[in-house]
C-alpha cells in the first residue's frame, strides 16, 4: 500500500531570465461577424430505420452541399448528461486533421459529415490538438490560427463543444511518419546552436520531443524562455478565439511534456503503446547541462558534492530485468538509499516545479474566461506491481511501494483549479498480466483516481488504445464509477481517442453510441430533424453514423 509523502521540496537552484514582452504578430482569422450567430441551431435531415445500404439518400445528411449553416440539430444527449448528472463524452480529432502550417483543414467535407454524426449520437464535443509546430512554425510570435478557427466554427455549427489541447511537443517519429509534426522550425534552429536545450540521457542521446525543463526560465529561445514562449502562445490563442470561449470552447488542456503529458521522455512516446510488453525501464533524462547544473547545485547545498555529477549508476539497460540492476532491484536497490531518495526527490521535484510554472501561467492567462483548464499525467503501468516502479521513476513519477508519487501532482493541479486527465481507462489487469505479470493498469489508475478524490480534483479519462469492443467500454464505465461513486458533485468526462474510419464501421458505431448513451445516463435520444421528433435506438444512430465515415 503506497503511503503519502510530503510534497516535493522547492530547490534553490533556479535559472531566471529577464522577461521580455514584445508585441506579438498575429495572422488574424476572420472576424466573428463573418460567421453565423453562435446560437443559431443546425438542421439535419436523415432517414433512420432504413434497410437500404448507406449512400446517397440513405442515412445521409441532406442537402449534401457543404453549407452547414442551413442545418439545425437538437443536441439532446449531452444536455441530458449535464441535466441528469451523467458524464459527457468527447472525441479526439485525427492527428492529421490539420494541413502543414495550420492554414487548412484536411478532408473538410468528411470532417463536417463526421461532426454531424457525432452530434446525432449525443457526443458532447471534440478534442482539437493545437500544435505549436504548426501555428508558430516559421518565426517566433507569428501565429496562424486559420485552420483551427475553421474547425471551431464547424463544431459550433454542428452543436459540438471543443476542448483545445496546447501541443508544445513533437508528434510522430520523423519526416517519413504521416503524422509527423516537429517543434517549430525556429526552435529547432536554436537547438542546433545549443543542443542542451534538448533532453539527454547518460549515453548522450538527445530527445527532440520537448524542450528540457532545465532551461524553463532561461532566455534560450531568441530572448524568451520556454515558459514565456508557451505563455505567449496561450495568450494569443485566448485573444484569437475569445468569441468562442464558454459557448463553444469549454476546455483547454495545457501540454507539459512529451505527448502533452507531465513527464520526462524516458523512452520515445511512440514506444509507450507497446513498451510494457518488453518491460522497458526507461532512461533518466538529466544529462543536458541545464539539468546537471541544477542537480549539482542541490547536491552542494546539502554538502554531498559527489551526488551532483550525474544520474544514478547501476540502472542497467533498457530491456534488463530490474532485479539484475543495482539501482532498481527490489530488496536492496539503491533507489531506497539516502542517495537514491535525494536524486529521485530532485528529479521528480523538477518535474513538479515545471508543471507548477505552466499551471501558474495558464491560470493567469485564462482567469475570468469561461473555460476549464486541465493537464495530463501519463499511464505508465508496466512495473506497477514491483517495489521500485522503475519505469515510473525514470518518467519523473517518484511512486514506489512506500511512496505516493501522484498525490503531490494532483495537489498541485488542485491549487490552480486544473482538471486531471489520464489514460488507461479501458485497460484490464486480467489481459495485461498475461503478457507482463508485473503490469497493473488498474492498480495505477485506482491510485490516481483516489488521489483525485482526496484532492477534490475533477477528472478527464482517456483510452490508451482505440479498442471499440464492449469489454473496453464496460471497463471505462467501471473505472468512471470508481471515481464518481459517493461524491456529492462528481465531475467526470471522457475523451475517446480517436476519430477515424474504423470508428464509423457499423458494428463499432453501434457499440460506441451505446457507450455514449450509458455515460450520459440517458434512456432515450430525441433528435429534432426538421420539425419532427425521432426516438432513436443505438441501431438508428449507427445507421446515421455509418454514412459519415471519416476517410
TrEMBL record:
Q: Which GO terms describe its molecular function?
A: beta-amylase activity
EC code(s) of this entry: 3.2.1.2
Q: Which reaction does it catalyse?
A: Hydrolysis of (1->4)-alpha-D-glucosidic linkages in polysaccharides so as to remove successive maltose units from the non-reducing ends of the chains
Annotated spans, Disordered: 46-65
Q: Active-site residues?
A: 261 (proton donor), 462 (proton acceptor)
The record's family statement is: Belongs to the glycosyl hydrolase 14 family.
> What are the UniProt keywords, alphabetically?
Carbohydrate metabolism, Glycosidase, Hydrolase, Polysaccharide degradation
What domain of life is recorded for the organism? Eukaryota
- How would you classify this enzyme at the top EC level? hydrolase
From the Swiss-Prot or TrEMBL record, give the protein name.
Beta-amylase
Report any one BP term from Gene Ontology: starch catabolic process
Biased amino acid composition, Low complexity: 46-62
- tRNA processing found in the keyword field: no
Amino acid at each position: 500500500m503506497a503511503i503519502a509523502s510530503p510534497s516535493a521540496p522547492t530547490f534553490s537552484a533556479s535559472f531566471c531570465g529577464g522577461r521580455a514582452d514584445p508585441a506579438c504578430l498575429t495572422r488574424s482569422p476572420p472576424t466573428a461577424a463573418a460567421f453565423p450567430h453562435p446560437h443559431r441551431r443546425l438542421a439535419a435531415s436523415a432517414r433512420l430505420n432504413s434497410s437500404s445500404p448507406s449512400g446517397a439518400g440513405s442515412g445521409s445528411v441532406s442537402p449534401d452541399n457543404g453549407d452547414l449553416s442551413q442545418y439545425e440539430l437538437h443536441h439532446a444527449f449531452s444536455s441530458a448528461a449535464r441535466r441528469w448528472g451523467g458524464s459527457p463524452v468527447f472525441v479526439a480529432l485525427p492527428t492529421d486533421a490539420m494541413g502543414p502550417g495550420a492554414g487548412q483543414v484536411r478532408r473538410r467535407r468528411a470532417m463536417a459529415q463526421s461532426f454531424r454524426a457525432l452530434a446525432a449520437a449525443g457526443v458532447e464535443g471534440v478534442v482539437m490538438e493545437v500544435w505549436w509546430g504548426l501555428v508558430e512554425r516559421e518565426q517566433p510570435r507569428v501565429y496562424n490560427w486559420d485552420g483551427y478557427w475553421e474547425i471551431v466554427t464547424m463544431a459550433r455549427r454542428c452543436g459540438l463543444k471543443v476542448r483545445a489541447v496546447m501541443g508544445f511537443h513533437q508528434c510522430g517519429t520523423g519526416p517519413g511518419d504521416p503524422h509527423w509534426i516537429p517543434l517549430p522550425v525556429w526552435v529547432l534552429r536554436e537547438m542546433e546552436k545549443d543542443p542542451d536545450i534538448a533532453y539527454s540521457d547518460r549515453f548522450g542521446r538527445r530527445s527532440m520531443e520537448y524542450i528540457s525543463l532545465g532551461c524553463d526560465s532561461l532566455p534560450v529561445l531568441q530572448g524568451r524562455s520556454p515558459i514565456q514562449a508557451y505563455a505567449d502562445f496561450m495568450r494569443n490563442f485566448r485573444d484569437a478565439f475569445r468569441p468562442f470561449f464558454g459557448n463553444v470552447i469549454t476546455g483547454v488542456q495545457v501540454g507539459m511534456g512529451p505527448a502533452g503529458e507531465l513527464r520526462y521522455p524516458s523512452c520515445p512516446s511512440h514506444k509507450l503503446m507497446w513498451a510494457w510488453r518488453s518491460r522497458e525501464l526507461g532512461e533518466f533524462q538529466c544529462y543536458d547541462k541545464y539539468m546537471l547544473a541544477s542537480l549539482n547545485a542541490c547536491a552542494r547545498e546539502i554538502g554531498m558534492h559527489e551526488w551532483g555529477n550525474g544520474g544514478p549508476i547501476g540502472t542497467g539497460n533498457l530491456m534488463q530485468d530490474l532485479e539484475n540492476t543495482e539501482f532498481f532491484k527490489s530488496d536492496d536497490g539503491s533507489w531506497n538509499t539516502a542517495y537514491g531518495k535525494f536524486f529521485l526527490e530532485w528529479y521528480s521535484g523538477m518535474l513538479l516545479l515545471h508543471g507548477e510554472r505552466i499551471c501558474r501561467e495558464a491560470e493567469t492567462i485564462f482567469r475570468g474566461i469561461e473555460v476549464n483548464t486541465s493537464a495530463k499525467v501519463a499511464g505508465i503501468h508496466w512495473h506497477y506491481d514491483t517495489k521500485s516502479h522503475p519505469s515510473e521513476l525514470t518518467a519523473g513519477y517518484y511512486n514506489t511501494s512506500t511512496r505516493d508519487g501522484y498525490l503531490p501532482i494532483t495537489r498541485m493541479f488542485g491549487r490552480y483549479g486544473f482538471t486531471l486527465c489520464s489514460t488507461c481507462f479501458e485497460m484490464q489487469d486480467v489481459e495485461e498480466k498475461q503478457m507482463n505479470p508485473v503490469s497493473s493498469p488498474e492498480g495505477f489508475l485506482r491510485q490516481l483516481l483516489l488521489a483525485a478524490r482526496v484532492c477534490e480534483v475533477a477528472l478527464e479519462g482517456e483510452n490508451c488504445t482505440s479498442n471499440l469492443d464492449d469489454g473496453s467500454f464496460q471497463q471505462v464505465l467501471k473505472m468512471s464509477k470508481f471515481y464518481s461513486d459517493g461524491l456529492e458533485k462528481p465531475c467526470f468526462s471522457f475523451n475517446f481517442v480517436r476519430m477515424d474510419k474504423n470508428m464509423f464501421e457499423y458494428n463499432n458505431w453501434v457499440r460506441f453510441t451505446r457507450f455514449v448513451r450509458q455515460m450520459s445516463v440517458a434512456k432515450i435520444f430525441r433528435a429534432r430533424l426538421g420539425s419532427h421528433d425521432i426516438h432513436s435506438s443505438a441501431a438508428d444512430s449507427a445507421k446515421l453514423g455509418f454514412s459519415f465515415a471519416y476517410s
